[in-house]
Design goal:
5 helices, Rossmann fold, alpha/beta, single chain, 36% helix
Length: 164
C-alpha cells in the first residue's frame, strides 16, 4: 500500500514552535499557509487513492477543506488521528491509537490512502510503515506543515511544497 501523509497547514504554534495549550483542538491555519496547501492539493488531485482520512481537529479540517476543493477528494474524520492531548492521554495511548488505525486501514483492500494529521501520528505511521513498530523516542521526528510524505514498504520520500 502507498500512503500519502501530510500535516495540517501552518498555524501560529507550528510556525513559532510554541505549545498549542488550550487551543490544541481549535487552532486555525494561517492565511499565509494556504498557498502551500493549495500546491499540495494540486499534486494530490491526479493521484488515485482508495480512502482519505483526517484528524477531527480544526486545523486539519480546514486543511482538507482546501484539499477537497482542489482535488475533489473527500476526507473521513477519524478521532484516532488527533494530536497528542498531554492532559488527557499518555504517549502509550497515542501509540496504541495510531497502531489501531494502521491495523484497521491495512485490513482493508486499499492500494493507497491519503491522511491529514499531526506530527506524532505522522511519525508513528511512518515508523509503522518502515519498521513495523513505533519507537516512542522517535515520535518528535516529524515533517513541518507543507510536506507530503509518500510512504510504502519499499520507499519513503518527501515532497516539500513550501519550496515549490
Amino acid at each position: 500500500m502507498t500512503y500519502y501523509i501530510f500535516r495540517h497547514g501552518a498555524t501560529f504554534q507550528s510556525k513559532f514552535n510554541v505549545p498549542y495549550g488550550k487551543e490544541i483542538e481549535t487552532a486555525e491555519i494561517l492565511p499565509e499557509g494556504i498557498p502551500v496547501i493549495e500546491k499540495l492539493a494540486d499534486y494530490l488531485k491526479d493521484i488515485p487513492v482508495d480512502a482519505n482520512f483526517t484528524s477531527p481537529f480544526k486545523r486539519c479540517l480546514q486543511t482538507v477543506e482546501i484539499v477537497t476543493k482542489i482535488s475533489g477528494k473527500k476526507y473521513i474524520s477519524d478521532d484516532r488521528l488527533h494530536d497528542w492531548l498531554p492532559e488527557k492521554e499518555t504517549i502509550q495511548n497515542v501509540i496504541e491509537r495510531i497502531e489501531n488505525f494502521f491495523k484497521e486501514i491495512n485490513a482493508n483492500p486499499y492500494n493507497s490512502v491519503s491522511i491529514c494529521t499531526h506530527g506524532y501520528p505522522i511519525s508513528g505511521l511512518i515508523q509503522l510503515i518502515s519498521h513495523g513498530r513505533i519507537d516512542e523516542m522517535e515520535l518528535e521526528n516529524f515533517p513541518k506543515p507543507g510536506v507530503l510524505t509518500i510512504a510504502s514498504s519499499e520507499e519513503i520520500k518527501s515532497l516539500d511544497f513550501n519550496k515549490t
